[in-house]
Design brief:
single chain; alpha+beta; 5-stranded antiparallel β-sheet
């Protein structure tokens, strides 16, 4: 009896405690992928709690509701409330509405009905087991981004000072503009794989490495290999910035910039990190907190591709 007496206040307290995090805090642009994925799972947990509370409230007031009608009422409420949250986020925190979050909300509702709400939605045992199996499969799909991120973050920490060699699963997720990248096995500088980078005719076209260990203090050079299948003379721009770059207005002079002239074939490029450290105007690069490494071309006359391999730091 005491359990049931305190359950409703506990659910209400948790719902009120968690609700502000829809509009406050959360992962930033450069946050670890695992944190971003974990934060997204909060939708499932919150709307699981909300579904349990709605069930207890509706049953207390409308005892005659059948399990099916109860299900329809709660799913509708979860969908509409989740949609409202996404709209309000757009106005209060500048976040764009995300329909995947709405689907996660509904997933939390399904978990509540599959395992915690009694009597069960489906009468026959085999139907209930099939429903639970379906919900568990959906939950496994929702957990996969977090699992994948944790695996690659562990691999990145073990591989360091190798930043990218494209030999391990999920490594392409370390890069922004992921659709421009494709694993390649024919043109390889090191190991078994490289990556083909598709470049467009946009004013700036390229890729950026965002997710990597950022403490570069113990190293002297950054090295990477680029294959140019075109005739020689392609200008490739490199940029490096630390975590303070945004606070300094992301100015061109507040990051390291260097151009390389790529000849046809493989080009093994070297950047002295002392040069990176002292490249900024008015301050020194924080080599303990490097945040971004990017490669790009400027206003090409036609689409083209280059190949990237073996990005690493050396002492």
């Amino acid at each position: 009896m005491k359990y049931h007496t305190f359950l409703n206040p506990l659910l209400i307290g948790l719902l009120l405690l968690i609700a502000p995090f829809f509009f406050l805090g959360g992962p930033g642009y450069h946050s670890p992928r695992s944190f971003q994925s974990f934060w997204d799972l909060g939708h499932i947990f919150y709307f699981f709690l909300l579904s349990c509370w709605l069930c207890r409230t509706l049953r207390g007031r409308f005892a005659q509701l059948s399990p099916l009608r109860l299900f329809v009422c709660i799913v509708t409420a979860v969908f509409l409330f989740g949609l409202l949250v996404e709209i309000l986020q757009n106005f209060t925190s500048g976040r764009s509405p995300d329909m995947f979050d709405v689907l996660r909300n509904l997933q939390g509702c399904l978990i509540a009905f599959a395992f915690f709400i009694r009597p069960p939605l489906l009468n026959r045992p085999w139907q209930q087991q099939a429903f639970r199996a379906m919900v568990l499969i959906l939950l496994a799909i929702a957990l996969w981004p977090l699992t994948r991120s944790l695996i690659d973050e562990h691999l990145a920490a073990r591989q360091f000072p190798m930043l990218a060699d494209f030999e391990t699963p999920f490594e392409l997720d370390r890069w922004v503009n992921r659709p421009q990248l494709r694993e390649e096995t024919q043109r390889v500088r090191h190991g078994q794989k490289s990556v083909r980078v598709q470049l467009s005719t946009a004013k700036y076209s390229g890729i950026s490495l965002f997710h990597f260990p950022g403490d570069w203090r113990s190293f002297r050079t950054l090295r990477y290999s680029v294959y140019n299948p075109q005739d020689g003379g392609l200008v490739l721009n490199c940029r490096i910035n630390d975590t303070h770059h945004k606070a300094h207005g992301q100015e061109f002079s507040d990051r390291f910039n260097q151009q390389f002239i790529l000849q046809q074939g493989w080009n093994d490029l070297i950047i002295p990190l002392d040069k990176v450290k002292n490249a900024l105007k008015g301050r020194t690069m924080d080599m303990e907190h490097i945040e971004g490494f990017g490669l790009f071309v400027v206003q090409q006359a036609r689409p083209m591709e280059i190949y990237l391999d073996y990005v690493y730091l050396s002492e």
